[in-house]
Write a structure and sequence with these properties.
The complex is a heterodimer. By secondary structure, chain A is of the alpha+beta class. Chain A has 2 domains: about 90 residues, no CATH class; about 120 residues, Immunoglobulins (Immunoglobulin-like, Sandwich), CATH 2.60.40.10. Chain A is extended. Chain B has 2 domains: about 110 residues; about 70 residues, Arc Repressor Mutant, subunit A. In chain B, helix 2 packs across helix 3 and helix 2 runs parallel beside helix 5. Chain B is globular. The relative contact order of chain B is 0.08. Chains A and B meet through helix 3 and helix 5 of A and helix 2, helix 5, helix 7, helix 8 and helix 10 of B.
């Protein structure tokens, strides 16, 4: 077992480029042995897992990018590991039973000569009526929650999908295009959102920045996060390059807001691009 | 002349596949596994265009297969021969590099991390589709394998191996093969008009 761990450690050092020329040659010669090759393969796979989980030191992370992610096939393997990890955890969470946090108390048994229903008729009726009321309230709550949840899911889909249809482009109340850098809301960036509107389209001027995807955070003016949007894409509307973010109108009541926009690099680093301010004078 | 060459190539490939496994489907799977490992070997040797080098190894072995089968021990893993040829090809390449500096200029550039496109931490519809193409058992194994807690990863995998009645190395081999199936499916599924196999 110890020998195997030592070999794994050495394989790790080989993959991250720590070995001397001579040490490298020894490992490279051993790659002829199918069992040793499998060990190095497994070690590389584990290194990829550690990279995905941010478990590597900064130095090892740089070495990993330089020595391991050297071609598209390696990247594809890394991406597959990443996706499998996400999928496995999402499915596990979806299938796990709800947690029971408190033991359910059992009724005390007491000796009595009287029949139980004559003593407890009124309280039982009260319990039944209260239960019906609670069930009805819960059903209304769940129905409302479900439709709001559905709206959020639909907006997430719009925000991350590749292209937008003409219908999508004209969906909801349009705020913007907002200019980056304005720190106060004034008449130029104030908008009155109709009460009946369910969807708001925030449009942000983008300019020539070039990123695969973008991230945005909607905040109030105290800097508290209201909602975060990932996987956003740049759009071109009437020749103008901009960011379109679909937001539920319930997230924007009266007041001043700020959107912090960031670009996401190909190596998943976040680069802040700017802040966009606006005022909602909705009647909600 | 060309027909004779084609015939010879066909016979060599048949002999190679029979050598890998008497079952033709299993033989192709082993062939593909070896090809992938050859690509890995050349990647680790820091040689660009590892796929071309892997193809060269396969071609060399195929060209000499009848001779190799005669000399190779039946108890040995055929893959070993391929990996040995890979080592020779790598050594030849480095020797040629020392001789020809133009080669080094043209081929020394390694793919840089900035050219790379990593995916985000989001669920993937294509992967979901391909997972459903696996057998129930394979799907269970691969999802259970990736469901580990980062802090107890080794213990989680030990436990899974025990649950499945396998050694840890057998579990890794199994997961590796399932990944190969998923890669194949993802490639077919993402191509326009493609269907998963």
């Amino acid at each position: 077992m110890e020998e195997s761990e030592a070999e794994e450690k050495n394989a790790r050092r080989f993959l991250l480029g720590y070995l001397s020329e001579e040490e490298r040659k020894i490992v490279e010669n051993r790659l002829e042995e199918p069992d040793y090759l499998e060990l190095v393969l497994k070690t590389e796979h584990d290194l990829m897992d550690d990279y995905i989980a941010n478990e590597l030191s900064e130095n090892d992370r740089l070495r990993f990018k330089h020595h391991v992610l050297t071609n598209q096939q390696q990247i594809n393997e890394l991406n597959l590991s990443r996706k499998l990890r996400v999928t496995a955890r999402v499915r596990a969470a979806a299938n796990s039973p709800p947690a029971v946090t408190e033991p359910i108390p059992t009724a005390r048994k007491t000796a009595s000569n009287r029949s139980w229903h004559s003593d407890f008729r009124v309280p039982i009726a009260a319990i039944i009526f209260i239960s019906i009321g609670l069930a009805a309230a819960f059903a209304v709550f769940w129905s409302n929650r479900s439709s709001q949840q559905l709206l959020y899911e639909q907006l997430t889909k719009l925000n991350t999908q590749q292209g937008l249809s003409a219908e999508a482009i004209s969906l909801g109340f349009i705020i913007g295009p907002l200019e980056e850098g304005l720190t106060r809301a004034d008449s130029k960036n104030s908008f009155s959102i109709p009460e009946t509107e369910k969807v708001v389209q925030l449009r942000l001027q983008l300019g020539n920045v070039s990123f695969q995807t973008f991230q945005a955070v909607l905040q109030d003016m105290d800097g508290h996060d209201i909602r975060k949007f990932n996987g956003l894409r740049a759009r071109t509307i009437n020749g103008e390059r901009m960011m379109i973010i679909y937001v539920s109108a319930t997230d924007i009541t009266s007041g001043d807001y700020r959107v912090r926009l960031s670009g996401v690099t190909q190596t998943n680093e976040i680069v802040e691009l700017g802040r966009y301010t606006f005022r909602s004078v909705s009647h909600r | 002349m060309a027909d004779e060459e084609d015939q010879r190539d066909h016979e060599n490939l048949e002999a190679l596949l029979n050598w890998l496994d008497p079952d033709r489907d299993e033989a192709w799977k082993k062939y593909e596994e070896i090809r992938k490992r050859l690509i890995k070997i050349f990647t680790w040797h820091k040689l660009p265009d590892a796929e071309s080098f892997a193809a060269e190894v396969l071609e060399r072995v195929e060209g000499k297969v009848t001779e190799v089968i005669r000399k190779f021990s039946k108890d040995d893993d055929p893959a070993r021969y391929f990996y040995g040829v890979a080592r020779n090809v790598a050594l030849e390449t480095f020797r040629n590099r020392e001789k020809f500096s133009e080669f080094e200029e043209k081929h020394d550039r390694i793919f840089t991390p900035d050219d790379i496109r990593e995916s985000r931490n989001l669920p993937d519809e294509d992967l979901d589709f391909c997972l459903e193409q696996l057998s129930e058992r394979d799907r269970y194994i691969v999802l259970a394998y990736y469901q580990y807690d980062q802090k107890t990863k080794k213990a989680d995998h030990d436990q899974l191996a025990e649950e499945l009645g396998m050694s840890k190395s057998a579990l890794w081999t199994k997961v590796s093969r399932i990944r190969s199936s998923l890669e194949k499916c993802l490639k077919a599924h993402s191509e326009p008009g493609g269907e998963a196999q």
